[in-house]
Amino acid sequence: MATLYNRIQGRNLDRLAALSDGIFAVAMTLLVLDLHLPSPAAVHGEGQLLAALGAMGPEWVTYGMSFLTLGIFWAGQQTQLTHIEKGTRDLTWIHLGFLFAITLLPLSTRLLASFITYRLALGIYWLNVFVPGAMLYWSWTHATHAGLIKADTSKEVHDSICKRIRIAQSLYACGAALCFISTWVSIAAIVLVQLNYAIAPRAWWRKQSEASA
After folding, report:
1. Are 116 and 58 in contact (CB under 8 A)?
2. Is residue 170 domain-resident?
3. Residues spanned by the domain of 192
4. What gap in Å lies between CA 73 and CA 126, rounded to an integer?
């Protein structure tokens, strides 16, 4: 039987959300701080500056991809917390595991930017996307089995959250597998998946508005 302290620990979801917001903000900031601008000593003209900025292509690409990744995970976590009535010790530690994986994303992003043609670097980056996705899925299933979901949460909402994570992670895995053709093809596929999840809700909302007009 759980001790009294374990039963009362981690009940405040607002503190968990605040910690998450801070960690996501720092991770997003570290992404842009890790962009290395050309050295002024090595640039002696407009053409050289343009060439140097072009050479930063892998950094720009991985920065944009990782910013989208963090945005999608932040939105996913906030969606779950909105529909969870109360926290528990176990739920808190699941989310701390999720945040641990989030803090590693700037590192795996830098690794991929430095070795963008290496399948191992892309595989590590994909693993850094898979783990927080798996933790979010675990969070929702745990909250469901533990009876932590708000009573007014419909079955459609519950199923939608589970389905979204499963489909997204499956698409990410397929995108990562394309690295055996080319890491650039793999990255392009992952970015397309991310853009779909970032833009699709707006398209759905526009469609609903037009239908009700």
Report:
1. yes
2. yes
3. 7-212
4. 14
Handedness of CA 200, 122, 137, 71 (dihedral sign): negative
Q: Are 98 and 136 in contact (CB under 8 A)?
A: yes
The Cα–Cα gap between 208 and 202 comes to 10
pLDDT tops 70 at residue 203: no
CA distance 92 to 10: 6
pLDDT digit string, tens, across residues 96-143: 999 999 999 999 999 999 999 999 999 999 999 999 999 999 999 999
CATH number of the domain bearing residue 46 = 1.20.1410
Whether the CB-CB separation of 95 and 77 falls below 8 Å is answered with yes
- Other C-beta atoms closer than 10 Å to the C-beta of 163 total 10
**Long-range CB contact pairs, 48-57, < 8 A, 24+:** none
Query: What's the domain count of the chain?
Result: 1
> Which pTM was predicted?
0.83
Is residue 2, in this structure, part of any structural domain at all?
Answer: no
168 occurs within a structural domain:
yes
1 within a domain of the structure (yes/no): no
Say how far apart CA 15 and CA 32 lie, in whole Å. 27
